[in-house]
Amino acid sequence: MPGSGTDSTKPWTEGGPVVVLVEPQLGENIGSAARAMGNFGLSRLRIVNPREGWPNDKAHTFCAGADRILDEAQLFPDLRSALADVSYAVATTARERGMAKPVFGADVVARDTVARLGAGQDVALCFGRERTGLYTEEVSLCDAILTLPVNPAFASLNLATAVAVTAYEWSKAASDGVLPFAMPDRSPPAERTDLFAFFDHLEKELEEAVFFRSPEKAPSTTRNIRNIFHRCELTKQDLATLHGVVTSLVEGRAGREQRKEQNNARKAAKRKARADGAPEEPAGSEG
To answer: What are the Basic and acidic residues biased-composition ranges (predicted)?
Structure first.
């Protein structure tokens, strides 16, 4: 049963670049990072020497259903071994490292990753420790640096947040930004004659309610009201709803209750006629 955006009836998106977490300190962050990966269609997780060991129960608790990513995660003793079979690696860092190494934003890295994967290369996105990030030596093992336009006075992101932002850019680039759903098809546009009929209905009832208190201003006020509805680009369903709104306001509570009682009385009479075996009156007949 779908809920909170999770729908087990839909296929699980897999693939994308490898996500490498280097010496993560907390199982909670590993689980939250896996959740973010699942959100944006990444499935390949490598974990380098996690501080609390592996597997980790807290990681499964915090992954919120992305257990398959954790179950298939690969464990490595160091970053060098985690990158041994990767064609291109990107180090994420919030600090300038003084290296002659290209620096890109997450959006540029995402587009480049799509192209590289399409050409048969494998790509790794490397994330460092919660407290210190990647060591400079580890950054030197990568081909490029990924950084984000964060507040320079408060640049440290939570590990899972950094994975989420990067994974989001990947997903957007891989899907050409296509959203998972759109506004449903609307009712057909209202025809001009239907719109004019609604204007007649509304203006008649406004006159009955003495809305137009100044005869001199009535024409301009009427035009303003019509222009409000013109700007809305109303559909046939919109007009049907608006007719009902006006009618309901005119009837008031007493009128609605009276109409309800009349409908109930007609239904009761039909039920009684069926019970007595008497033929029912044809619809619309008059006594």
So the answer is: 253-264
* Domain shared by 150 and 224, yes or no: no
Would you say the pTM of this structure is higher than 0.85?
no
**Cα gap 156→221, rounded to integer Å:** 57
Query: Token pair for residue 7?
Result: 């729908």
**pLDDT tens for residues 127-176?**
999 999 999 999 999 999 999 999 988 988 999 999 999 999 999 999 99
Q: Give the residue-averaged pLDDT of 24-47.
A: 96
C-alpha of 90 from chain center: 28
What domain count does the chain have? 2
- 256, pLDDT greater than 90: no
CB neighbour list of residue 162: distance below 8 Å, 6 or more residues apart: 92, 127, 148
Domain residues for 262?
192-276
